[in-house]
Prior knowledge:
Layout: E1 2-6, E2 9-11, E3 33-35, H1 37-51, E4 57-63, H2 68-78, E5 82-86, H3 90-101, H4 125-139, E6 143-147, H5 158-166, E7 170-184, E8 192-203, E9 206-213, E10 216-220, H6 232-239, E11 244-245, H7 282-293
Parallel strand pairs: 1-4, 1-6, 4-5, 5-11, 6-10, 7-10
Antiparallel strand pairs: 2-3, 7-8, 8-9
Helix pairs in contact: 2-6, 4-5
Bound molecules: adenosine monophosphate (AMP).
Adenosine monophosphate binds at residues 6-8, 36, 38-39, 42, 61-64, 121, 123, 125, 128, 146-147, 149-150, 153, 155-159.
Amino acid sequence: MKVLVAIKRVIDYAVPVRVRPDKAGVEALLPKLSMNPFCEIALEEAVRLKERGVAAEVVAVSVGPPHFQDTLRTALAMGADRAVHVPLTAEVVALQAAAAAGGGEGGAGAGGAAAAASSESPLQPLGVARVLAALAGREGAGLVLLGKQAIDDDCNQTGQMLAGLLGWPQATFASKLELELGGKGSGGGAAAAAAAARVTREVDGGLEVLSLPLPAVVTADLRLNTPRFVTLPAMMRAKKRPIESAPLESLGLSPADVAPALALLRVEEPPARAAGTRVGGVEELVRRLREEARVL
Ligand code: AMP
């Protein structure tokens, strides 16, 4: 069985993000970009499935500007067998910007905000999902793994939309993934064919366990696994490996198919927190909680 893993490149989670003064997005001069943490977890899970002999091939896929290839190299170093980059032509990028320029509050006054101004990828989730659906079909994937959300735009939509477009079952926020085997795979080499996925999800009241017939879409939550450390030799080897380029047209898609579905109005910093006060003792704390905060 082939496993497709969707990988997004985002601003590193440790970098403080600042909103642009014109409120049209976040500062573009950003020092460090890395693989979205939830995509890293999705990829680790796919590599483990391969190591267990359940997956025959792990294909990492990224849709975005040329520098997204750096993150695909990290994916190869982590254990992906192949990497596919879907580049965005100037026409696609212009379409996204044009649609967004009419959107900001006061029209183009919002600085001609990019459609996904907090994101390094100009495509919105529906556009990404359409690309992933085309790739899943082309590759004959039995399972598509994604992060539950990208930490830049916090959309939490791509996996759900992908499952809808493909008409496949989905399990979001997976904290455990087991594949139930159903005999020998045909195109899967030595790996056995999986018939269904058993997914555990952390929900408010406890754990929910689902069974999904394959092919299916699963999105990874934080506790699914701890991704492996990428070693320098693995990274050096990955630098020499090819990354396939799959332009939209080669997937049967046009720029209009990935055009933005919504416009960003503005991005704002959260309100500043009021300064704290020091209380003289427990009695004063209790009195103020009762009389001023009215929480007791
Ligand atoms: P989102 O719906 O934007 O929060 O993203 C959820 C997941 O969709 C991410 O963790 C990735 O697995 C996938 N994804 C989003 N954008 C891209 C992209 N440009 N290229 C590849 N995968 C993506």
